Amino acid sequence: MRSTWGNNLQLTIFGESHGAAIGMVVDGLPIGLAVDEAAVARDMTRRAPGNDPTATARREADRVRIVSGIFRGHTTGAPVCGIIENTNTRSGDYEQMQRLMRPGHADFAGHVKYKGQNDPRGGGHFSGRLTAPLVFAGALCRQALLPRGVEVAAHIAAIGGVEDERMSPADVSAAQLRALREMRFPLLAPGREEEMRARVEEARLAQDSAGGVVECAAVGVPAGLGAPFFDSLESTLAHLLFSVPAVKGVEFGDGFSLALSRGSVANDAMRVRDGRVVCETNHNGGVTGGITNGMPVICRAAVKPTPSIGQPQRTIDVEGLADAQIEVRGRHDPCIVPRAVPVVESAMLIALMDLMLEEETRR
């Protein structure tokens, strides 16, 4: 099991959902970076469970204990290690998962790949609980990017078929992104919250779940980050986004709708304004040829419905290799989209930090 990512910024994630702790080692951050642990805690709280009716009843404070790499409030150049203790586990809910594979989960794939030695409690190392360390890494990257003029935020673009307004791709502002980060249920059209929550409650009462979409933007990103082909901005960010459990689709700019367009529409006309190059539109999401072009970077991630649902489901018993039925127990989110917002932000922050460090080492 390889759990390390990155070229210039390297992340190693560890732990299991019902183990003693989960955490992240972040190596390669700029030396002397001032770290505001209160700001880290604010980002962690946005993802933490038990804080909203759409979330699991499992309550975890998600406090990060930083055990290395920071001295007197600044990074030392050594790897930064943050540990998050698991304090509210109910492992008995998962006893049957030793043999009954939950549909939609990684239970069967993990059982085969790791020869039955993986920890099945709460999904083990495959659990969405492991997105907490990703948010910790993203919070550190945010603090490195802000002095560089980069702001990142996301909003709930859709839940259960109810859509929020789309970001204006060429005009999204840092002030708008800062406002979204302060919202408990981040929407561009707050009036749609009630209908979204109603869709989630409808699914919960039916012992079911709802999925949705998260849209994320970064402004202040300089032109020139990324590379053609293997280390493009899109491939770097998509790698991270598809590492988030439940993300099943990613698009940049107008994404798949560009396939229905013509070049005369899809091309972003370029102009010079106040001594800098800008695009009149931003259909390509701030990236052309795999490299940022100075426009806001816009992406969307499709989040599937939570696979843990209370309805009876057909499955298999791996011990007897026979058909079986399962009713998933435990505490689960009827919709994970609101909690996925800071996680998608973190993927953007980490990707931009890695590519920015690449450029800074080339100078």
Description of the structure:
- It is a single chain.
- This protein has 363 residues and is of the alpha+beta class.
- Helices cover 26% and strands 23% of the residues.
- The strands form 6 sheets. It has a 5-stranded antiparallel beta sheet with strand order 1-2-3-7-4, covered by helices on one side. Strands 9-8-10-16-11 form a 5-stranded antiparallel beta sheet.
- The longest helix is centred in the last third of the chain and has 26 residues, at 337-362.
Q: Care to give the gist of this entry?
A:
The protein has helices at 37-47, 107-113, 131-145, 174-181, 193-205, 233-241, 263-266, 337-362, and strands at 4-5, 10-15, 21-27, 64-68, 70-71, 74-75, 80-85, 151-159, 162-163, 212-219, 247-252, 270-273, 276-279, 287-288, 291-292, 297-303, 313-317, 322-326. The protein has 363 residues and is α+β, with helices and mostly antiparallel strands. Helix 1 crosses helix 8 and helix 6 packs antiparallel against helix 8.
* Arrangement of strands in the largest sheet: 1-2-3-7-4
Helix content: 25-40%
Radius of gyration computed on alpha carbons: 21 Å
If you average the pLDDT, what whole number results?
A: 92
Report on the biggest sheet: 5 strands, antiparallel
Individual helix count: 8
Element string (H = helix, E = strand)? EEEHEEEEHHEEHHEHEHEEEEEEEH
Strand content: 15-25%
Give the total of beta strands. Answer: 18
Ends: how far apart? 35 Å
The class by helix and strand makeup works out as alpha+beta
Shape: globular
Give the low-confidence spans. none
